[in-house]
Amino acid sequence: MDYQNRAGSKFGGGGVASTSATNADRRERLRKLALETIDLDKDPYFFKNHVGSFECRLCLTVHQNDGSYLAHTQGRKHQTNLARRAAKEQREGKKDEGAQTGLLAGVQVKKNLIRIGRPGYRITKVRDPISRQNGLLFQFQFPDIIPKTEPRVRFMSAYEQRIEEPDPNYQYFVVAGDPYETVAVKLQAREVDRREGKFWTWFDEDSKEFWAQVLFKTERDERFSAVPGLAPGRK
């Protein structure tokens, strides 16, 4: 850092750096150090989003460039979270099992796991012939899914995702099956009927096809969801 020509300093003697200048120099030194020791392609917590920013999935932070992300990885917050994650995995015995490091239920990343693309899918509109409930039938193809595993599903609110601006009028139906990329279907933020036979999932081991049916509550059910005998409320 150049300390010369600063206010209040003698010629050639340097001067006291400002706080912002000191922080900028520190970040630059950390970035250069990280570039020599870290390969971003092998970092399981490194993620580049659709707007070109970089995210740390461990600390849930967003960075405008790779230098900022690399400086973050050398900081106290990231190192502390790494130590906590390592201690948690050791307690749960995940290192011996080679298990994954989880992010969200149904949205998980495994170390050294190569993603092979998105699964094939088909979505069909359905209606219950008795209750007249509207819904959707999902069909996903996972021909190369990891043996002895089944796809996982969950419903995600608009405020849990970081891809779009949160809109309370929508929710997301998330499906994950390693080594495929996790996919999400954008749905109306209507309450899902979770009674037996209304919401169900099924995985065909032979054809490697995953099926899921989602039926939405009727307006009457939503209005009187607390009344005994009607569809249960959202959990």
From TrEMBL:
GO terms for cellular component: catalytic step 2 spliceosome; U2 snRNP; U2-type prespliceosome. Keywords: Metal-binding, mRNA processing, mRNA splicing, Nucleus, Spliceosome, Zinc, Zinc-finger. Signal peptide: none annotated. Residues 1-24, 72-99 are annotated as: Disordered. It is found in: Nucleus. GO terms for molecular function: nucleic acid binding; zinc ion binding. It comes from the Eukaryota. SMART domains: CactinC_cactus, ZnF_U1. Residues 86-98 have a biased composition (Basic and acidic residues). One of its GO terms (biological process) is spliceosomal complex assembly. It holds the Pfam family SF3A2. InterPro entries: Matrin/U1-C_Znf_C2H2, Matrin/U1-like-C_Znf_C2H2, SF3A2, SF3A2_dom, Znf_C2H2_sf, Znf_C2H2_type. Residues 54-84 form the Matrin-type domain. Belongs to the SF3A2 family. This is Matrin-type domain-containing protein. The lineage of its organism: Eukaryota, Fungi, Dikarya, Ascomycota, Pezizomycotina.
